[in-house]
Specification:
The complex is a heterodimer. Chain A is mostly helical. Chain A has six helices and no strands. Chain A starts with 10 loop residues before the first helix and ends with a helix. Chain B is 72% helix and 0% strand. Chain B is built from eight helices and no strands. Classes of the chains: A mainly alpha, B mainly alpha. Chains A and B meet through α1, α3 and α4 of A and α1, α2, α3, α6 and α8 of B.
Chain lengths: 162, 197
């Protein structure tokens, strides 16, 4: 089985030392002599130096916004979040009220269905229409289900927004 | 007259209440302005360099940098230690970059993998993003750019890279090795190309 090359085992140790501010010339002795003979580590050092130089150049040229401006933006965002948090109960109450209102309307329509059907059959056009009559208990159950479905919809909308 | 004075006093009380509330909201940020200024001075430059090099877009780096600090300030318990704080900021930056790439892909815009050239009209167009390293990095995958920058520019350990980028620690080494090989091949290829050396 041929193993894919993953570099040298010492790379991590060398990189850690470099990260602590040690230069390749001031590395501890076993690592320094290893560096001279290992092509992987030598390659890593050259890449490290390339990135360090690039990072220094970029950091020097970075057009940073003023700290005060960033602070102002963060406080604005915090204020907006606080306002949203404060308004949240009102939003929830509004949605629930809407759901209950919708459910009540549906229940009313279902309860008034026999009366409405009776009114409609007065006209000749609807005289042949078959009207199913429902018992009161099934009407109540169906209106409760409709109400629950609407509330679930409202809660789902809230959750999706979050 | 008394009624007028009462109304005025009530208005002042309300205004004071509003100001106190606003102050309390600002105080709900993770730290005060002076402490933030110190953190910002210490961390903003390397963070901007990371964002600019990995995204290849200085204007985007500006935006994401500010967003990074907004999110950092909104933390309930920000890290106390300086090294942790820096790692945390880099993690936020990495997540923001990932979100940006996802949104870009969703909207069918140019992939960030190829969008390496900064806009000409931007005030940071002078930033040296067109260096050999920048050119070579722009041809790598975003994940590879992140790994290379964190390892070699920031000197982050494999564990820190894994935490920042959200990958397994064991995966960092082979991925980093492959990314480095790819980068060197690109740099050598560019320098060997006639007229580009």
């Amino acid at each position: 089985m041929i193993m894919k090359p993953k570099g040298c085992e010492n790379e991590v140790r060398i990189l850690e030392a470099l990260g602590q501010g040690v230069t390749p010339e001031t590395l501890e002795e076993p690592l320094r002599s290893h560096l001279a003979s290992c092509p992987y580590c030598a390659e890593m050092i050259s890449v490290y130096e390339l990135f360090q130089a690039d990072s220094r150049q970029l950091c020097a040229a970075a057009p940073l916004p003023n700290a005060g401006r960033v602070w102002w933006r963060a406080s604005l965002a915090a204020r907006q979040a606080a306002a949203n948090r404060a308004l949240r109960p009102i939003l929830i109450a509004e949605r629930i009220a809407l759901a209950i209102g919708g459910g009540a309307l549906i229940a009313l329509l279902v309860l008034a269905a026999p009366w409405l059907a009776g009114q409609l059959t007065r006209f000749k056009v609807f005289s042949t229409t078959v009207v199913y009559s429902l018992s009161l208990s099934s009407l109540i159950v169906s209106s409760i289900i409709a109400c629950l479905l609407l509330m679930a919809g409202a809660l789902y909308t809230l959750w999706a927004e979050k | 007259m008394d009624q007028g004075e009462n109304m005025l006093a009530r208005a002042i009380t309300l205004a004071r209440g509003g100001a106190a509330r606003a102050k309390a909201e600002v105080q709900s940020l993770a730290m005060d302005e002076e402490s933030f200024r110190i953190v910002y001075e210490r961390t903003a430059r390397p963070l901007w360099a990371y964002l600019a090099r990995v995204s290849g877009n200085p204007a985007l780096a500006d935006d994401l940098l500010q967003e990074c600090y907004c999110r950092f300030l909104a933390l309930a318990n920000p890290p106390e230690e300086e090294a942790h704080r820096k790692n945390y900021l880099f993690r936020i930056a990495t997540n923001l970059l990932r979100d940006h790439w996802r949104a870009t892909r969703r909207h069918g815009e140019t992939s960030i993998e190829t969008a390496d050239v900064p806009s000409e009209d931007h005030d940071v167009a002078n930033v040296p993003l067109r260096s050999d390293l920048g050119q070579a990095l722009s041809k790598l995958k975003p994940k590879e750019r992140q790994l290379l920058w964190l390892a070699y520019a920031e000197g982050a350990s494999h564990r820190e890279i894994a935490r920042t980028s959200g990958m397994k620690e064991a995966s960092v080494r082979p991925l980093l090795f492959r990314a480095r090989k790819k980068l060197l091949a690109l740099i050598r290829g560019a320098t060997l190309e006639p007229g580009k050396a």
